[in-house]
Amino acid sequence: MLLNCGQPLPLLRHTDVPPRVIENFILTGYRFPNYSLRDCLLSAFRPTNETGNFWTHFLPVFVFFYHFVEVFGWENAPHGNDPFFYPLWNYFIGVFCLLMASSLAHLLNSMSIVVREVCFFVDYGTISAYTVGSSLAYYYYIHPRAGLGEIEEQTNPEMDQKASYTTLDLSVFFNTLYIPSACVVALVCILSCCNTRQRWRKYRYIIRTMVFLLPFFLSSTPIFYRLLTKSPYSDESPSFASSSTMAVYFYGHCFWLVLSAVFNISKLPERLAPGRFDIWGHSHQWFHCFTFLSILDELHMIKAEVKAILLSTSMLLPPGSFPRLPGPTVTSTYGVMLLLQTTIVSVIVWFSWKANSIFGPQRDQLAKDHPTKHAKCH
Ligand SMILES: [Zn+2]
């Protein structure tokens, strides 16, 4: 490897880096896995094959924040510290951690091959935690009886009797099992994804993509319910108008998710022209862009329902309704997230320890064979 004092370290071809670092159909623009923290941070401003991956999840943090804070300025909105917004803040934490961990994982993964493994374990962990942040928001804002803790009950005698029975059948699931199931599925996701870095390597992209279908279908059950049943808001109310935009955003959310999965699995466009998209335009950057667009549509969908709750003065409830949904508390939102994050951190520590025992000797050998520029320059 060439050493160049005072200059950025040279970028390498796929034949010059350890096999572990090679991405399919990406031939050039590699950083050798012996960068210092400073080299990694500076590489955000150099055209490497990770630069686009970093920026496509780092810049969206600001776009997301811009759209997120709008909620607190709405008419009837309580203060940002109010328990009503606890689920929304948990959703924010989930998305913020996902975007930051993903962008930093791409930036810092060339510190060593062990750090590279840890970076991506953290990445999978934050994706899993994000799914629970979404579920908490869905539970409190899109749940069949969301927001009712604040609102006087009314009954609608015209409500389809069959629909009310369906509601009753689902009440146990929504009230008792929904959030615990979301947490269990999130743990299944991180365990499966971390495992794909140590086994099932050949099918890793398919497994990582497919495994996140589980939390999608589970988390989205309140939305499916909403789409299949009558709106809880009266047709002429402003809440009905806001809530009815939810469906469009949900379809947009699904569309971007499908597109991101297609790019992640197919490795298009670099599969068609290996070497041509090494720096800009390869599939992982498109995957990042489409996942962010799916998150943005999800945020708009949640906001539409938050607005509907804030605007509602009455709701049309099915006859024989099941008990009202308790409002969010610190324990039922931040507490759930904290417990989940602690478990996720334990899983990451366990896999990192395993990765260190597998790749530690190789890392030490590489450090010996390829000393950093700083060591040689003095
Ligand atoms: Zn990524």
Could you explain how this protein is built, in words?
Its main location: membrane. Zn(2+) binds at residues 106, 284, 288. Keywords: Membrane, Metal-binding, Transmembrane, Transmembrane helix, Zinc. The two termini are 17 Å apart. By secondary structure, the chain is mostly helical. α10 (246-266) packs antiparallel against α11. It has one domain (52-377). It has helices at 37-42, 51-68, 86-108, 113-141, 161-195, 204-211, 213-219, 221-228, 238-243, 246-266, 283-311, 331-369, 373-377. It binds zinc ion (ZN). Zinc ion binds next to α3 and α11.
List descriptors.
mainly alpha, elongated, binds zinc ion, metal-binding, 13 helices, signaling receptor activity, Progestin and adipoQ receptor family member 9, 378 residues
What's the structural blueprint in terms of helices and strands?
Elements: H1 37-42, H2 51-68, H3 86-108, H4 113-141, H5 161-195, H6 204-211, H7 213-219, H8 221-228, H9 238-243, H10 246-266, H11 283-311, H12 331-369, H13 373-377
Helix pairs in contact: 2-3, 2-11, 3-4, 4-5, 4-12, 5-6, 5-7, 5-12, 10-11
Bound molecules: zinc ion.
The site of zinc ion (ZN) has 5 residues, from helix 3 and helix 11.
